[in-house]
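$ fold --in a.seq
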Amino acid sequence: MHKIDSVTWKLGLLISSTLIYALIEMIVGAIFYSTTLIADGYHMLADAASLIVALIGYIFASRPWSKSTFGWARSEILGALINSLLLFILTGEIIVHAIKSTIAPVKIEEPKVVLGVGLGGLLFNLIGFCVLNDINPVNIVKRCFFNLKDVEQQPKLSKSTEMNLRGAALHLLGDLSVSILVVISTTANLLLDYRWTIYIDPVMAFIPAFFLSISAWKLLRESAMILLEAVPSHIQIESITKCITSMSKVRSVHEFHLWRLSGDVTIASLHCVFATPDDYIGSIRDIKHILCQKGVHSATIQPEFSSTPFNVNYDRPSKLDLYVKYCQAVSESCDGQTCCPGFDSQK
């Protein structure tokens, strides 16, 4: 029997079970007028959506695509961005529901039934969180009793996959807090006979909404910075430039671009000026070693040669210095391009 990928297997099982339990919570909440339980059901639907995004991103990330030389490498980053937006929508839903419940509180009918479903949701989310932790540790639950022996040993996950799973884990964590609120509010209705007990649920709902919004913002910022091709926060271009230009055969560095393709793949492109082609050949290995030490996964280094009778300031080359004598491939057509600095019309 062919064994399927463990990550796909676990995520698929978690998605289907989450959808089923979300339907149960919404039906029970509608029958017994528990708006908190209905909100928890919608919350679980958002959980399922985040898990679906994570699964799609994981499946497509490794597939080749002829129209993109990098394949689907950023599909998981896009999934992480969608997850963060869903978290913001979910946070807004919790806040709106809490405000409505505070203005017009409704007493829960049959709180024992609602309490049972709430406890079931609490247990379900704990198991789901353990499953995600089994796929990828999220620094909250280190080990878990959940062990699937009928699947292959799970593969090493990429950083972007970890981002998607982190977003899904945040969804489950938020739903876990809502399930706790369901248990607290229904327990208060069972044990206390005061009018103010009906306000416990909406007031406490603001607490998880606050923490969820912070987590969603961090996930949104990280995924958006990758899609915008911003320089990774842990890499300093100035430091790398200083290390490269400190080499005796490197005259200067310009047009240095550095970005993340996905969560764990950093790419760089730079122009290095040498006196002769021999200097380039003798330095290229050391330059790549410096980039690798700084966390750059792949780099494209364009050599430019400055063997010219002109007096050139290699630390701050002028536009004229960067002309024909500076780059062997340059022509008049480069004047309108943005890959290199512009050139003076003077020759």
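$ fold --in b.seq
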Amino acid sequence: MRGDNNFILETILRYCRVVSTHRAGAARPSEDLTARARIRDAALDVFAERGVARARLKDIADAAGVSIGLVQHHFGTKDALRQACDDHVMATVVQGAGESVAGPDPDALAALFDGSERGVRYLARALVDGSPAAATFFTGAVGVTAEFLTANWPERFPPGAKRTRDAAAVMSAMHAATVVLHEQLSRELGVDALTPDGAPVIGAAMTDVYAAMGGFAETAAGRRVTGLIAERAKERGDD
């Protein structure tokens, strides 16, 4: 296990920078301006704003500047249009999720988050409402985060261990919360959390917290807390 504190802090800081900068859309796909794509993009916006349950095909047609008949011609039903939106987000926002991060460099995690701001807003709503795309996204994020933890601290986070899965799930949820709670977060930060302007603010705050917690873990109080947690885990039989 690489226990050097400088290595640990630098690795966590790099992870935070990677996760927070996804909003800049560094690897956005080329624009597709066909009628079908305009309808899909309008649906992404309407679904993100109102949720799938409250959105109507007429609302989407109006937003796209087309007739409802053309929407039905291309997609048939609202459920089919939602599926098309899910597929698009999975192919853009979550592109590269299957890439290996077996090495210690966490930059490969950026592949999970490269995509358009529109897709991220849709995903934020999907994570709240629940959808196959949201479930797949989060499961993928947990898997990649688990690989990241194991690659850097294999003794603390062995591959396949419950401790590793738990840590990866919680860490992924913490970062996903900045997307899910973007309205509240934006209000408190004074900048839109889902835009490139918000990324450095969130990244700086994340790294500040991780750095402080790393220091706390080395104090007497921190060691007591981690000791109590370890005892509870042992009582539950966690691996």
